[in-house]
């Protein structure tokens, strides 16, 4: 099953979900790690190049996922607590918006001097805005957004586990198995 | 021309309350005829150059009384520019200048010793990264005179080498990069 139905996810949505989750957590860890590396660490430059390249790829995946999401039926939330559905929906929207803001802020750090971002040596993402101190301001925002997303993703995961163990519904299972 | 200058000098002398008063020059940052650059070894293989884009200050100078020369410069450390945003961010961060804590660096002269025509050694208190030290370094006049727009200008240059660890900056950039050379290239407009 490729496409979603109103009760189950197709494998495209599932793949987007888990691959992007992996990328988000991976980039978060890499980001925290790379800023602590010192000048003489062999990976001082490579870690940043990877973070930037993977970040641009993640942004592309975000866009494709959004297009896919809008062109597919959405599985209806399980359980009958309306406030839970509202919180879940808000969390999902926030995750999308914060990720978008995260991409923009990261992009603005690296391109603040007018240099393009080279993505895995495949193509270049050109610079646009080059404001004074842009790298500092965008850097603070990028950091705060990354932590916000981590906390929100944590809430999202806890909620999924709650659905699985306490409510004993298919919320988590259907994100693992196409057509479930 | 000579007559005109003589006349200008005479009228200036007559108008001035004190003849020994050195003239005050405002550093021409508005027209960007002043530069504060830094230069540090990269790995010991080449040089990295950068500058501070925002600063201001003024100096006192009188060719007839060079000992009265004085200068005050305030540098906005957040304006550091090495033509690479990620490096600038790092240099402005807590590993180096920590500009959110120390947004200003200042130099205030405490003395000037003439060592020849248009040359001397400037001494003053330099504050960087919250650390103040008295430093002395040679300065040299490049030239002075009227500009084409009705003003009078004088320009100087000076450079000094600072040990980063003296100013509490101990990030390991390698053995060749423990000192940084600061270059001042300033032009002032007489007020």
Helix-strand blueprint:
The complex is a heterodimer of chains A (about 180) and B (about 190).
Chain A: H1 11-34, H2 46-70, H3 82-110, E1 117-119, E2 123-125, H4 134-165
Antiparallel strand pairs in A: 1-2
Helix pairs in contact in A: 1-2, 2-3, 3-4
Chain B: H1 2-15, E1 23-27, E2 34-42, E3 46-52, E4 55-61, E5 70-76, E6 80-81, H2 85-92, E7 104-116, E8 119-128, E9 131-146, E10 152-163, E11 179-190
Antiparallel strand pairs in B: 1-4, 1-11, 2-3, 2-11, 3-6, 4-5, 5-7, 7-8, 8-9, 9-10, 10-11
What does this entry look like structurally?
The complex is a heterodimer of chains A (180) and B (191). Chain A is mainly alpha-helical and 180 residues long. Chain A has one domain (11-175). Chain A contains four helices and two strands. Chain A has helices at 11-34, 46-70, 82-110, 134-165, and strands spanning 117-119, 123-125. In chain A, strands 1-2 form a two-stranded antiparallel ribbon. Chain A is elongated, with a radius of gyration of 18 Å. By secondary structure, chain B is mainly beta. Chain B has a single domain, classed as Lipid/polyisoprenoid-binding, YceI-like (Lipocalin, Beta Barrel). In chain B, strands 1-4-5-7-8-9-10-11 form an eight-stranded antiparallel β-barrel. In chain B, a hairpin with a 2-residue loop joins strand 7 and strand 8. The longest helix of chain B has 14 residues, at 2-15. Chain B is globular, with a radius of gyration of 19 Å. In chain B, 23% of the residues are buried. The mean pLDDT of chain B is 90. Classes of the chains: A mainly alpha (180), B mainly beta (191). The interface between A and B is medium-sized, with 16 and 15 residues.
Run of helices and strands of chain A: HHHEEH
State the strand order across the main sheet of chain B: 1-4-5-7-8-9-10-11
- CATH class category label of chain B: Mainly Beta
Work out the helix count of chain B.
Answer: 2
Q: Tally the helices of chain A: what do you get?
A: 4
Give me the secondary-structure category of chain A: mainly alpha
Helix-strand string of chain B:
HEEEEEEHEEEEE
Strand order of the largest sheet of chain A: 1-2
Q: Report the sheet with the most strands of chain B, covering strand number, pairing sense and barrel closure.
A: 8 strands, antiparallel, barrel
* Head-to-tail CA distance between termini of chain A: 10 Å
Overall 3D shape of chain A: elongated
Tell me, rounded to a whole number, the average pLDDT of chain A: 95
How would you name the CATH homologous superfamily of chain B? Answer: Lipid/polyisoprenoid-binding, YceI-like
CATH topology (fold) name of chain B: Lipocalin
Strand content of chain B: over 45%
């Amino acid at each position: 099953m490729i496409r979603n139905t109103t009760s189950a996810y197709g494998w495209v949505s599932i793949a987007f979900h888990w691959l992007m989750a992996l990328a988000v957590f991976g980039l978060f860890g890499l980001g925290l790690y790379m800023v602590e590396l010192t000048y003489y660490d062999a990976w001082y430059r490579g870690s940043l190049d990877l973070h930037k390249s993977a970040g641009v790829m993640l942004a592309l995946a975000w866009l494709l996922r959004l297009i896919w999401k809008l062109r597919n039926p959405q599985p209806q939330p399980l359980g009958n607590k309306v406030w839970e559905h509202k919180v879940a929906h808000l969390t999902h929207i926030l995750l999308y918006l914060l990720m978008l803001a995260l991409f923009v802020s990261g992009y603005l750090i690296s391109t603040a001097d007018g240099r393009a971002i080279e993505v895995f040596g495949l193509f270049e993402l050109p610079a646009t805005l080059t404001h004074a101190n842009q790298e500092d301001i965008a850097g603070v925002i990028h950091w705060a957004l990354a932590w916000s997303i981590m906390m929100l993703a944590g809430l999202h995961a806890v909620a999924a586990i709650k659905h699985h163990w306490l409510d004993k519904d298919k919320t988590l299972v259907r994100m693992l198995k196409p057509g479930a | 021309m000579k007559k005109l200058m003589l006349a200008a000098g005479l009228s200036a002398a007559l108008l001035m309350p004190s003849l020994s008063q050195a003239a005050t020059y405002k550093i021409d940052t508005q027209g960007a005829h002043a530069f504060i650059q830094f230069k540090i070894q990269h790995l010991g293989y080449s040089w990295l150059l950068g500058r501070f884009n925002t600063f201001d200050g003024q100096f006192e100078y009188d060719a007839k009384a060079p000992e009265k020369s004085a200068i005050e410069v305030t540098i906005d450390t957040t304006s550091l520019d090495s033509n690479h945003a990620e490096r600038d961010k790092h240099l402005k961060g807590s590993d180096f200048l920590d500009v959110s804590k120390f947004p200003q660096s200042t130099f205030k002269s405490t003395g000037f010793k003439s060592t020849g025509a248009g040359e001397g050694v400037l001494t003053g208190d330099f504050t960087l990264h919250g650390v103040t030290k008295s430093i002395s370094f040679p300065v040299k006049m490049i030239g002075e005179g009227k500009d084409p727009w009705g003003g009078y200008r004088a320009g100087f240059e000076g450079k000094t080498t600072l040990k980063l660890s003296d100013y509490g900056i101990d990030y390991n950039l390698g053995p060749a990069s423990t000192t940084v050379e600061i270059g001042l290239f300033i032009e002032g407009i007489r007020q």
